[in-house]
Amino acid sequence: MNLNQRSIQHVLAAKQVTSLVHFTPMQNLDSIVKNNLLSRDQCKRVGIKPTTTDRFRYDGLLDYISVSLSFPNDRMFYLKQKDLGYSWAILLLSPKVITSQPSLFFSSNAASAKKANPLDGSGTADALSAMFGSRRNNSPSHGLGDCFPVDPQAEIMVKQTIAKQYIQSIIFRSMTDYRNWIRAGGAPLGLKIIIDDTYFGQRNRLALNNNH
């Protein structure tokens, strides 16, 4: 582990980040569980045709996988659920991914025309830290815990492949979705399964729950 990776590890520990998050149509789960989570370009290289959710990929980072810190990009995920009509699953991933794989850090959406922060797109620990706000802001302004970025659309781009060993669990919205996946031939292969619709809703609801 090099100095930057150790610094990234320190930021993750200081912010108590326990999971990264990736949402995907349920149709992709079998391939992910068997073949790892792959970028769009890497899928082409190995002959896998995933169900994609972004026709244009305005960020241009086709050899990267988008993940979020602690909770999905709820604005984007809401639109995907509304417009595409798929059944969805959410992967919780070990934060160790970004200390082992080349990654780029964005304090807002990576496809934004104007960068929110001059560090955006960097792979440094400072860029990761910037996702949580300035150092002078000692307490999170969003009403959530330290492990959440300031902007719900903040994202991390992980290069090419996330090995299945980094999948902590698979979250389904309902037991019906899980059973449908199993009936279609899905196999958890020892992975932890969670049924919880919280991750399919709005992040600010977590803040409301924390205040009651």
Topology of helices and strands:
Blueprint lengths: L2 H12 L5 E6 L3 H7 L1 E2 L1 H7 L17 E6 L4 H11 L3 E6 L3 H4 L2 E4 L18 H6 L24 E5 L1 E2 L4 E6 L2 H9 L8 E4 L8 H7 L2
Parallel strand pairs: 8-9
Antiparallel strand pairs: 1-3, 1-4, 2-7, 3-6, 4-8, 5-6
Notes on the protein architecture:
- By secondary structure, the protein is an alpha+beta fold.
- It has one domain (3-210).
- It contains eight helices and nine strands.
- The protein has helices spanning 3-14, 29-35, 40-46, 74-84, 97-100, 125-130, 175-183, 204-210; strands at residues 20-25, 37-38, 64-69, 88-93, 103-106, 155-159, 161-162, 167-172, 192-195.
- Strands 5-6-3-1-4-8-9 form a seven-stranded mixed β-sheet.
- The radius of gyration is 17 Å and the shape is globular.
- Mean pLDDT is 89; it is low at 135-139.
Percent of residues in helices comes to: 25-40%
What is the number of beta strands?
A: 9
Q: Low-confidence parts lasting 5 or more residues at pLDDT below 50? A: 135-139
The structural class is alpha+beta
What's the overall average pLDDT, rounded? 89
Rg computed from alpha carbons, rounded to a whole number of angstroms: 17 Å
The global form is: globular
| Assembly category | single chain
- The DSSP helix count reads 8
Element-by-element helix/strand order: HEHEHEHEHEHEEEHEH
Task: Work out the count of structural domains.
Answer: 1
Could you tell me how far the N terminus lies from the C terminus, measured between alpha carbons in angstroms?
A: 42 Å
Main beta-sheet strand count, sense and barrel state: 7 strands, mixed
